[in-house]
Amino acid sequence: MSIRYVATxxxxxxxxxxxxxxxxxxxxGKEHVALSMGVVDDGEPVLARVHSExxxxxxxxxxxxxxxxxxxxxxxxxxxxxRGVLLYLRQEGRGIGLMNKIRAYKLQDGGADTVEAxxxxxxxxxxxxxxxxxxxxxxxxxxxxxxxxxxxxxxxxMEAAGITVAERRPLETGRNPHNDRYLNTKAGKxxxxxxxxxx
Length: 199
Fold this sequence. Notes:
The protein is an alpha/beta fold.
């Protein structure tokens, strides 16, 4: 995968000032971003989040998923530590794209769960790829992560890319009545490490 580094700028946020690093994939035309704070190229494991774009959750405050809450919690955790990296990957809807995500939501409105909806549209349950992460982290000088995730596929993908996952930190936040079934499906069908809701 031929990911190309573009430029770095400052990004002030409510959580603190990050450095924003731009990357582009000439093969797909997709643009990805890494946010970093503090010294991350010293060889020590870096608090990190690999976050796939979710327009509905990240920008439109959707309560159908936990994505926006996870993004906010990850940025807060990095800022609190004063050191860390967040990779923001442009692969909306677990890789099926925004319009297909809306089609999947319509199927969910009719009773399908998040996996069934993707499959009814002819997609796999999770179409995301993480090959771009290796080049992005290499540009930042990061070789070892304390990865904030509930997704075992992300841990395996990082390790397959030669990136050490020194620690896996749970990132459970944002559960609400609108996404309860979604989270339970991710745990039951996709193997995510999510604590069952209290009964």
